[in-house]
Amino acid sequence: MSLDAVLDIAAAVFLVAGALLSLAAGVALLRFPDLLTRMHAAAKPQVLGLLLVLIGCALRLRTGVDITTLVLVGIFQLATAPVAAHMVGRAAYPHDDIRTDLLVTDELAAHLDRIAGARDDEVRA
Amino acid sequence: MKPDQMTPAEPTDPPRRPLSRAALRRNRIIAVTGLVAVWILLWGTFTWANVIGGLVVATVLLAVFPLPPVTFAGRIHPLPMLRFWLRFLRDLVVASVQIAWMALRPGHTPRSAIIAVRLRVNTDLNLTLTAEALSLVPGSLILEADRSTGTLFVHVIGVNSRDEVERFRRGVLELEARIIAAIGSSDEQRRVREVAHPPPPADLEGVPT
């Protein structure tokens, strides 16, 4: 078997694995109970799925110009996906959409109460 | 004025030493190198025209949008860095499989928790890197960062008891230790070793379970 064929098969495996992970991320988005758990789905299987698809593409294309672009896509995905998840999660946090009945503990609420208390004191002073 | 719960905490700047001139120059060199590297990767070929073009773009960018001063006190330690990346990739795969399994498992509603973890090294760089890495490893997603105390608020999926919460808190601190081992200064590494288990923030003690 020639090297090209081996690389093509590897590329196919990576592409299918990446697509399956992205599918799982989509299913998770639909099935998870609230926004915060859904952001987990958007942050992790989706990122790895995309990275696998990028590796698959790189193995199939095999040209330097294309691969450098794919590397950039991967780096920026790793850097920005957590930030996006954080922004959405933080924007939605103290809200009815969060299923507090499913939380074992919520230490951010105590933190926010403390900040609100400190601000109240400042206003009074 | 009534304080409103929807706005995130104001970042109160902790007292930080102003950067020395040498540190500022080093920051600028790192930033220019990074931007030129991105520029060359975008074009895809390494030619002198690309390098010079990248330098021009980087200079203009840094002049128009100056970066906030980031203190990078340490240096890159290659072996711990490699260890961090290997562990990170493993974690990313485990995390993805875990979430995928949770999604496909019939009749299961995952329980979760929001926990506060106070990092031992309170620098912007460490806070950022730990938060970024945390969001991609199993079970955790960053919700809020408090710069003044160096505390991360993490949403954890798939925990069912206080014990698991505490185990997770230790996991976050281990991740921080790996990052500090890879890029921290000797002073920061000593702090991580000395404070093996930092006390939780005062207002969190006695939180009902």
Automatic annotation (TrEMBL), chain A:
What sections of the protein cross the membrane? 6-30, 42-61, 67-89
Q: Which UniProt keywords apply?
A: Membrane, Transmembrane, Transmembrane helix
Give the organism, scientific name: Micromonospora phaseoli
- Signal peptide per UniProt: none
An example Gene Ontology molecular-function term: sodium:proton antiporter activity
Where on the tree of life does the source sit, at the highest rank? Bacteria
Keyword Transmembrane helix among UniProt keywords: yes
Name under which the protein is recorded = Multicomponent Na+:H+ antiporter subunit G
From TrEMBL, chain B:
Name where it mostly resides.
Answer: membrane
What is the name of the protein in this document? Multicomponent Na+:H+ antiporter subunit E
Location relative to the cell: Cell membrane
Q: Which UniProt keywords apply?
A: Cell membrane, Membrane, Transmembrane, Transmembrane helix
Signal peptide position in this chain?
Answer: none
TM segments? Answer: 29-46, 52-72
Q: So what family is this one in?
A: Belongs to the CPA3 antiporters (TC 2.A.63) subunit E family.
| Protein's organism | Micromonospora phaseoli
Q: Where is this region: Disordered?
A: 190-209
Pfam families given for it?
A: MNHE (PF01899)
- Specify the domain of life of the species encoding this protein: Bacteria
**Topology with respect to the bilayer:** Multi-pass membrane protein
What are the GO MF terms of this UniProt record? monoatomic cation transmembrane transporter activity
Q: Got a GO cellular component term for this one? A: plasma membrane
